[in-house]
Design goal:
Length: about 300
């Protein structure tokens, strides 16, 4: 199944450029306008009270109306619920499928806690007067939708009644304060987290194929759900890059390794299942040419990363 997973990293003959490609302030401003046009078409109507989007809701309703459930559920679901908030068992005693599910849960929990505070700092789209506020509002709504897709992944393995409690007091406070930082300070780490997310998803796609090789229906459903997230994440990388000039780009490169290492400490399953050094290398070398045409055709790439 590695060959199938590797299709996520192939775009054919097209050559696209690094996300760190230099660009002018005018180019970045023009790309915000272009991104907003893409975002409106891609997301559809925003449901502010539900923190939801029309196209994502429609897709989620399709998945829910056509459920896929694993024919080989977890051997010991109690092991998942014992370790899904915090890894307490010796990971050597846990099978890879359980570790995969706890990893997905922890990643979704971090994502949800990271966007809750940011949502409250932005005006609703119809009340926003600054284009970047409108863009960021829809961006956050997409992230809430991602958590719902992650939850559906867990449901595929009969893991129901999932909730996402707050993180510890220190992490919660950091997430609360972070959206209030000036844009020049907030943009580099925000960009790096998007970059981290996309490279995590690429390896997650490969790992799903590897671990679920004997469960093609469940494997394909998890990949379909993941690819919905990856289309957005691919666009988010370029959108967040638009906020940064040369200094911000330089600072973001410096932050890649420490942020990635910190995140894997919070989610130890990443270091167990994935190649963390590769995550760091791929982030530094991120190039849209490594993303599949299947993803790119539905996503958005900055003009300065196109030949």
């Amino acid at each position: 199944m590695a060959t199938e997973a590797n299709t996520i990293n192939q775009t054919g003959s097209q050559t696209l450029l690094s996300i760190f490609t230099p660009c002018t302030k005018k180019q970045r401003q023009d790309n915000f306008v272009d991104y907003w046009t893409f975002s409106q078409n891609h997301a559809g109507k925003i449901y502010e009270q539900d923190r939801d989007l029309e196209t994502k809701r429609n897709k989620r309703e399709y998945f829910e109306a056509n459920p896929v459930r694993s024919k080989i559920p977890l051997e010991n679901p109690d092991a998942f619920f014992r370790n899904y908030v915090k890894l307490v068992d010796d990971p050597q005693t846990l099978d890879q499928k359980t570790l995969l599910m706890t990893c997905i849960y922890k990643f979704a929990r971090h994502e949800l806690n990271g966007i809750r505070g940011a949502w409250d700092t932005l005006p609703e789209v119809e009340n926003a007067t600054v284009l970047t506020d409108k863009i960021s509002r829809v961006h956050l709504a997409e992230e809430f939708c991602h958590v719902r897709f992650f939850t559906e992944m867990l449901h595929t393995f009969h893991l129901e009644n999932i909730d996402f409690p707050p993180l510890g007091p220190i992490e919660t406070k950091v997430y609360e304060i972070f959206p209030h930082f000036p844009e020049a300070i907030m943009s580099p780490p925000a960009f790096v987290t998007e970059l981290m997310g996309m490279n995590f998803y690429i390896q997650l796609d490969e790992k799903i194929c590897e671990i679920l090789e004997g469960e093609p229906e469940a494997r394909d459903r998890l990949r379909d759900l993941l690819h919905e997230i990856m289309v957005d994440e691919c666009a988010h990388i370029g959108q967040r890059r638009n906020f940064m000039g040369p200094i911000g780009v330089w600072f973001s490169k410096v932050m890649i390794k420490p942020i990635f290492k910190m995140f894997t400490r919070d989610i130890p399953e990443i270091a167990i299942l994935f190649d963390v050094n590769r995550l760091v290398r791929d982030a530094h070398a991120f190039n849209y040419s490594t993303i599949s045409r299947k993803i790119l055709d539905r996503s958005w790439v900055p003009s300065y990363c196109q030949p």
